[in-house]
Each structure stands twice: as C-alpha cells, then as structure tokens.
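Predict structure. Chain length: 101.
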Amino acid sequence: MCLAVPGRVVEIEERDGTRMAVVDFGGVVKDVCLEYLPDLRVGEYAIVHVGFALQKLDEESALKTLRLFEELGLLQEEFGDPLESLSGRPDETAVVDGSLS
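Prediction complete.
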C-alpha cells in the first residue's frame, strides 16, 4: 500500500536547484521534495506521498493521523522496520524514536 503520510519538517535545503526537506514521520526520517509547497517551513507538517509534500497540515491533525496509522500498523507497513534493513550492516545509521542511533 502507498499512503500519503503526515510528517514534520526538520530541515530544509536546496539540492541541485530543488527545494528539499528532511521530514520526520513519527520516528522515521526521509528526504522529501518541497517544490509543491514553497512556503513550508521547519517545524510545520505536510502530507507526503511518494517523496513529495503535497499539502500543509496543522499539528493536531498530523499527530492524530500518525497515532491512528501507528495503531493500525500502517506506518510499519509503509516504512518497514528501520532497524530490520540494517541487520548485519553496523556502519549504517538508523533513526529510532526521532533520534539517530
């Protein structure tokens, strides 16, 4: 399944002429393109689908949706286990509970 998931913008930068962000999806961090939302700022939430931020979202709605997705196991289904992909590769970095470990 491919969901549109709310995430919080942690960092914004321009990469090769494209506005990009690091976005936190309840502990899983991904790179996201911000070209569709040029006014989005660090700390704000957006709905993200296939790597593109599509719509700004208020914090209350974003957190409520993330909790619901987590309860239903949809975040695990969408992003997988961040530690599972690292088994046997200690040189890689995982993001767990919003912090690098």
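Summary: Residues 82-101 have pLDDT under 50 and may be disordered.
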